[in-house]
Design goal:
Layout (H helix, E strand, L loop, with lengths): L1 H8 L6 H13 L17 H7 L3 E5 L5 E4 L1 H7 L3 H4 L4 H4 L7 H12 L3 E7 L7 E10 L2 E8 L1 H23 L3 E5 L5 E4 L1 H7 L3 H4 L11 H12 L4 E9 L5 E13 L2 E11 L1 H19 L3 E6 L4 E4 L1 H7 L3 H4 L15 H10 L4 E9 L5 E12 L5 E10 L1 H53 L5 H31 L9 E2 H11 L1 H7 L2 E4 L4 E2 L3 H17 L7 E9 L2 E7 L32 H11 L4 E5 L5 E7 L6
Parallel strand pairs: 17-19
Antiparallel strand pairs: 1-2, 1-5, 3-4, 4-5, 6-7, 6-10, 8-9, 9-10, 11-12, 11-15, 13-14, 14-15, 16-18, 19-20, 20-22, 21-22
């Protein structure tokens, strides 16, 4: 209390005489003294003037003693005049001590200045009331004008709350919103707008809207129209997102003006990218349906045709105008009338009919072979409301299939005859060749001593030609046999055994060349054993034949790859020019003369025939002078 009293009196107090004069003036002026001295009518007192004002008036002397309180002041603060006049100000309002009200009133008293402050009253009886007070020097004390602004504050509070709610609505709206200045600068954008495009506020707000439009002409036109105060509704544009993608949007604009002055535009942005893509997809699908060679038809669950494309018109002869609204049974042939109700029953159950072959009648009476695929059509709730049907004319295909069957049968017979002929010819040609070889040898023994060197050379040519012919026939027979064993073998082939037999058959060539044959552990594959042996034998034989200066080194390996076995036969021979790597597998295709490297040129063709027949593939990787690697694949064995 002592501290409060000290603060109430202040550092510079007027004399007691000044205070008494102020009190006397306050008692006489408002209540009893006439205003005629101031030019007012004599029957109007200062008290009446004060009481007519909308503001309350409180006068305190230099010692903070209340010397006057108007009726409005007592009403505002819910205090009686007797509770105020003659009491100390801080005694009447102790809740003000230590607040901004005390600081400002003391400043007015001490510095002799006018102050204004709004405060919330916590006094008993007026708690929660808001008052606006103005204090100004009055004699040695101060006069305090007060006004009840509770209603105004409530309105302001409500307005602020509404503004806050509006701002929250704008910021959290599901649709994108942004404001743009007349020059195109983005002034404000809500979260939906930023999230739609992926920008931060700093990356978007303050930048020119032109930076984000993919089509310069579109935004230029928009801004020009807005300058003319046009309202733009659902204008489609393309905006560039932060990740570089393009978003399709529908934008609605209007201009906010004050006193005819352009302030900013308000733009509502709705992302229609998915809708645009869906529309484009529908348009593409419609174009596909319309351009399809197949008949694409929709019907309801009563079998009434609802749509009819150009393909249906081409196949069945009816135009859309002629057939839409009619029953699909219009297309049925008499013996197939019961199919359509059965198909509709399956559609009602949600089933799909795939590649159902039937017969249908065209407008001109022709009967076509038709393949049908029918699917349920569902509405947005998932309820089945109809069926879509794709009808394909397979009449010509049926004729083609029958023709192919007949051609295949004829080709099969021709191949069988050809294989039989080749097999017979191979055997039948052996006997004449043996006779030529035998009689040539007899002639050479009988006349060899009496003939000259030229005659001996002729005999040698005959013998070599017979030997080549015998080898050729032998290889042709092997090739023919490779062609006749494309069916699945009854048992799998052990590649280790097949390689062992091949090496045994080539033992003379291996010994004569000093070749070294090595291999890893080989798998079991689904092939004929003798054919796999033939492949190994031909590849190793070639490696020995086409050797370089060093002794041949051949290595056979295998690894599992993509569910199949990949074999490799590697050598250190003369190699092959890569441009010939396909040619060498052809019949009678040779890269060297017979004088250089004898042979028929059928060995690799036989290998390719065997491997292809087993469902595999064979190829070579090689360079001249650096050896070759022949690869071939084979299916794994049944128990592999």
């Amino acid at each position: 209390m002592e501290k409060r009293r000290k603060r109430q009196t202040g550092p510079a107090q007027p004399s007691s005489r000044d205070a008494d004069n102020l009190a006397a003036d306050a008692r006489t002026s408002p209540d009893s003294r006439s205003a005629s001295a101031n030019g007012l009518p004599s029957d109007i007192t200062a008290a009446e003037i004060v009481s007519s004002l909308p503001d309350g008036l409180i006068v305190v002397d230099a010692r903070w003693r209340i010397v006057y309180a108007s009726a409005e002041a007592t009403r505002i603060y819910r205090k009686s005049p007797g509770h105020l006049v003659g009491r100390g100000h801080w005694e009447a309002w102790p809740e003000s001590i230590g607040t901004g009200v005390e600081r400002e009133l003391r400043r007015a008293m001490q510095d002799r200045v006018i102050v204004c402050i709004e405060h919330r009253c916590d006094a008993e009886g007026a708690r929660g009331m808001w008052a606006e007070i103005r204090a100004f020097p009055c004699g040695p004390g101060i006069a305090i004008c007060c006004r009840d602004i509770s209603s105004r504050r409530r309105v302001e509070t409500e307005l602020r709350q509404r503004e806050k709610e509006l701002a929250d609505f704008v910021e959290n709206a599901a649709i994108g919103l942004h404001w743009v200045a007349e020059d195109g600068t983005i002034l404000r954008a809500n979260d939906a707008e930023l999230n739609m495009l992926g920008y931060t506020r700093d990356e978007y707000i303050g930048h020119n809207v032109r930076e984000f439009h993919a089509d310069a002409a579109v935004i230029t036109d928009i801004l020009e129209r807005l300058k003319r105060r046009e309202e733009i509704t659902r204008c489609e544009a393309r905006l560039r997102a932060r990740d570089g993608s393009i978003r399709y949007v529908a934008m609605t604009f209007n201009v906010y003006s004050e006193n005819g002055q352009f302030i900013h535009t308000r733009c509502f942005t709705r992302d229609i990218t998915e809708q645009k893509r869906a529309t484009e997809l529908q348009e593409r699908l419609a174009a596909i349906v319309e351009s399809s060679d197949d008949a694409i038809i929709s019907k309801d669950l009563n079998g009434i045709i609802r749509s009819w494309n150009s393909g249906a018109e081409r196949i069945f002869g009816y135009t859309a105008e002629e057939i839409i609204g009619k029953p699909v049974a219009t297309l049925a042939v008499p013996e197939r009338m019961d199919e359509m109700p059965n198909i509709l029953d399956r559609i009602r159950r949600g089933e799909r009919v795939d590649h159902y072959e039937t017969r249908r009648r065209t407008k001109d009476g022709r009967v076509l072979a038709i393949s049908l695929t029918v699917s349920p059509i569902r509405d947005a709730s998932g309820e089945i409301i109809g069926a879509s049907k794709i009808a394909r004319d397979i009449t010509e295909r049926g004729r083609t299939v029958q023709a192919l069957r007949e051609s295949n049968a004829a080709l099969t017979r021709a191949n069988a005859d050809l294989e039989q002929f080749a097999y017979s010819a191979s055997h039948d040609l052996q006997e004449p060749l043996r006779m030529i070889a035998a009689y040539t040898a007899m002639l050479k023994r009988k006349f060899g001593g009496s003939l000259d060197d030229t005659s001996d050379e002729y005999f040698r040519y005959i013998v070599e030609g017979v030997q080549r012919m015998q080898q050729l026939i032998h290889d042709l027979l092997a090739y023919t046999q490779a062609s006749t064993f494309f069916e699945q073998p009854e048992s799998d082939a052990d590649a280790n055994e097949a390689l062992r037999h091949a090496i045994s058959n080539l033992q003379q060539s291996i010994a004569g060349s000093g070749a070294s044959i090595t291999h890893t552990r080989l798998p079991t594959v689904r092939m004929h054993q003798f054919q796999l042996q033939q492949v190994f034998q031909n590849l190793i034989s070639n490696a020995i034949k086409y050797r370089g200066e060093e002794a041949p080194q051949v290595h056979v390996g295998a690894e599992r790859k993509d569910g199949r076995w990949l074999f490799s036969v590697r050598d250190n021979g003369i190699g092959i020019d890569p441009k010939y790597k396909e040619r060498i597998f052809g019949m009678f295709k040779r890269l060297h003369s017979i004088a250089e490297y004898p042979g028929t040129g059928i060995g690799l063709a036989i290998c390719q025939r065997i491997i292809n027949g087993a469902g595999g593939h064979i190829w070579v990787e090689s360079e001249l002078g650096r050896g070759s690697i022949f690869f071939f694949t084979a299916p794994p064995g049944r128990n592999d």
